[in-house]
Amino acid sequence: MSLSNPHSSIPPNISSTPTVLLNTGAQLPLLGLGTFQLRGPEDTLQAVDAALSAGYRCFDTASVYRNEADLGRALRHLLPKYNLSREDIFIISKLGPKDQGIKAREGALRSLELLDLEYIDLYLIHWPGTQGLGVGDLRNPKNRALSWAALEKLYTQGRLRAIGVSNYTSGHMKELLEGCSVKPAVLQVEFHPCLAQEELRRLCGENGVCFQAYSSLGTGALLQDPLVLQLAQACGRSPAQVLLRWAVQQGIPVLPKSSHQSRVSENAQVFDFELSTEDMERLGEMDCGQKYCWDPSQVV
Ligand SMILES: NC(=O)c1ccc[n+]([C@@H]2O[C@H](COP(=O)([O-])OP(=O)(O)OC[C@H]3O[C@@H](n4cnc5c(N)ncnc54)[C@H](OP(=O)(O)O)[C@@H]3O)[C@@H](O)[C@H]2O)c1
């Protein structure tokens, strides 16, 4: 993985937004808009408009978010306003746990159809388990393998430009790395100062897999943390900017979600300041294994 221009002070646009080089050769923007819980054509249009205006060029959706059609429509409508084309945008979507296994191809094709796209830039297996199966059910690993094989085929056919996984533990990752023909390009997991994910980061680094963060703000909970508030005040930035900067300063792509225009813009202003080594370390010391989202550790 190589990092291009992570400390740029130029306002973000497609040529200046810092990116991470994926093992496919594609550039993944360090900043993307999260869209979980963004629902309905109007709200989606407003958030995407605010994001494009603030310089976001990456959007993260998923089958389970039920907003793929709204996101696709919003982008088609708004790209001309910003003089952008499809190639300027990086779209991430994910295979729903209900489609894990033999239905994976169908699930991925449905995402393409709902987004109304010829290709998706990055498609992830959302969760190591299968909806309807217990966490200890031995059909889980079989279904993961079937899903990956389906994604590999769609990757080879060019409909998915990169493929990866989300919420995989190091055990799930090792199983995948041993059995795959196409290496995953990305692992997307929960990551913030209270959840440093050192083992997964090391594994990704050793295998050329890009480690991508979700819930960098701790789903909002870390915005009230006393140390985050103290550092934000000291550097004249917002708590959200401190948390996002902590990740991007380590070269880790983030996907903050907000449905407020001012916050979408605020969350993009993270490439024009630096946290000191000491502040980075103090935030790193918050690691306590705290998860605010789902926990995949019990899925066999
Ligand atoms: N792969 C997975 O399993 C997975 C799981 C979770 C998330 N994700 C992805 O990652 C994205 C982000 O994660 P997340 O939505 O869980 O949490 P997050 O980005 O850590 O936090 C979002 C929350 O923080 C608030 N917020 C955002 N910016 C703010 C700001 N500048 N000031 C104050 N509050 C702010 C938002 O409220 P408002 O909207 O009201 O502003 C929202 O409640 C998701 O949308 C999704 O795309 C992926």
Automatic annotation (TrEMBL):
Binding of substrate, residues: 126
One matching Pfam family: Aldo_ket_red
Keywords: Oxidoreductase
Recorded GO MF terms: oxidoreductase activity, acting on the CH-OH group of donors, NAD or NADP as acceptor
Domain NADP-dependent oxidoreductase: residue ranges: 31-285
Catalytic-site annotation from UniProt: 65 (proton donor)
CDD domains: AKR_DrGR-like
Entry-linked InterPro entries: AKR, NAD(P)_OxRdtase_dom_sf, NADP_OxRdtase_dom
Site (Lowers pKa of active site Tyr): 94
UniProt-recorded name of the protein: NADP-dependent oxidoreductase domain-containing protein
